[in-house]
Amino acid sequence: MTERLPCRSEGCSATILPATAAKTGGYCMPCKQEMERAERQRYIEQHRRDIDLYEGITDPVEILKIMHAPVKRDPLIRYIPYHLKREEVYSALSEGDADRMLNAAFELLESGDEDTCQEILVSLICYRDYSLESCIPILLERGIYYPGILFKDAPARGRDRMLQFVEQDRENCNHLLLALAWIGDDQVVRQFQEWRSDPPSWAKELYVPPEAYAHEGGWELTENGSKRRLFYHDSYAIGEKMPTESTYAAEPEPAQFLKEDSASCPWCGSSLTILADLDISHPKLRFLGLSGERLRVSTCVNCSCYETIYMDVDFHGKSEWSQTNIKPEYVPGPDSGEDERSFTSAGRSLRIADKPRSSYYAAYWALGPAVSQIGGYPAWIQDAVYPSCPCCSRSMTFIGQLDWEQIEEYGEGIYYMFLCADCKVTATLFQQT
Ligand SMILES: [Zn+2]
Ligand SMILES: [Zn+2]
Ligand SMILES: [Zn+2]
């Protein structure tokens, strides 16, 4: 039997065959590999260059083009990020520069890069509520019907063509209905109503009836066939307090987030959480149109991952577990300890922004930034779901969302909050990828 030799690394107790030792210089394979990795790392650190793709560039359109362009991945290059985020550059564009950005998008489309073109168009809509009205013919020409938000401001002519296509184009029926839902003008509402009362033959191929697509555009078809919007145009981002703000905050905040509720979840036993505690008499939140002082939206953050959770509220701070909640078959165990509720301390550092932002800022979740907000159009990660009110069965109105990415280090998913103001019921649900 060949005698094994000890590995030369200090503190390593492995032994190796002489043949291995001859190859590795006396080290075991794991130690050898670790040495090589460290060597590579040293090399990278010594030779890595910083590259500033934005150096000397002041034109925001050029800056955005660079941001949208793919970068070569190279461990020896460290790209210095631009001092503003992409969405901030979009928000600050002048009207003229937004038009130039639109042209840049269509140049990319000409060159065959449909994905980046789409990303720019959606960014213009979300961050600036830019109207693509004039571009709809080009999109239709190209057979681009997705995402539906591109068609938000489609003129009558484009709409009529799409209403025609939807009857004929089986393959794109789903995308066409999404786009029509986003248009949501009188003609579309009338057509959805007709389809509801007299379902077309092609509707059998859909997962939901055609009129149910209205939710994707943020509205529902009421019983009498009119359009009822399910979100507020006013929208305020929820973000981190600046460190100085917490120290010198002079005025009470109109909204607080992620506070411990005194009640427990009847399903899993964990403490309920007040996702949002809103001072509805505050000028900033008057857009909600509620008369009273306080709306609390509570939920069980565990159980709402499995089931929509309804609470009975008043507009004076009451929030109680609704008897209409239906326990799901699976209920998670209770929180095991303090650690898991660390989000309540994260909540203390959140506040709503001073100025409103575009209603559609978060409307296309895949654009990337964190999207906690009060009001505005929701950032659906999956299909649009506006829960039905357990009392009046109308779709409930979206009032805000908390993006867990902003709350916990490796957090993901979004809690969505809804209200039926007439029945005084809130609902919360959760989506993730
Ligand atoms: Zn070793
Ligand atoms: Zn629970
Ligand atoms: Zn209701």
What's a quick, concise take on this entry?
The protein is of the alpha+beta class. 29% of the residues lie in helices and 20% in strands.
Explain the overall architecture.
This protein has 12 helices and 17 strands. With 433 residues, the protein is of the alpha+beta class. It has 3 domains: 43 residues, no CATH class; 99 residues; 198 residues. It has an 8-stranded antiparallel sheet with strand order 12-11-17-16-15-14-7-13. Strands 8-9-10 form a 3-stranded antiparallel sheet. Strands 1-2 form a two-stranded antiparallel ribbon. A hairpin with a 5-residue loop joins strand 5 and strand 6. Helix 3 runs parallel beside helix 5 and helix 5 packs antiparallel against helix 6. Bound molecules: zinc ion (ZN) (3 copies). One zinc ion (ZN) binds next to loops.
Helical content class: 25-40%
Number of domains: 3
Q: Give the uncertain stretches in residue-range form.
A: none
Percent strand equals 15-25%
Largest sheet: 8 strands, antiparallel
Q: Between the first and last Cα atoms, what is the distance in angstroms?
A: 56 Å
Number of strands: 17
